[in-house]
Design goal:
There is one protein chain. By secondary structure, the chain is mostly helical. The protein has a domain of about 45 residues.
Length: about 70
């Protein structure tokens, strides 16, 4: 779940960060890799500097879920 700093981040033209569209094709192996990629992509989207606080949690679900 992201904070509003992620989903309300604007690019220089004023467009909001399209979180779902951006991450839907990503294939990363760990939550840490996902968060690093998200951070880089978000900073690229806003033009290099975030103007709001940003928080994101990534959790890797085990393939063998306990019942």
């Amino acid at each position: 779940m992201p904070t509003d700093g992620v989903i309300e981040a604007h690019d220089p033209a004023g467009a909001l960060y399209p979180l779902t569209e951006r991450i839907s094709d990503w294939h990363v192996s760990t939550p840490e890799d996902f968060l690093r990629r998200l951070r880089r992509d978000l900073i690229d989207h806003v033009g290099g500097q975030l103007r709001d606080d940003v928080a994101m949690i990534a959790i890797k679900r085990s393939s063998a879920a306990a019942v």
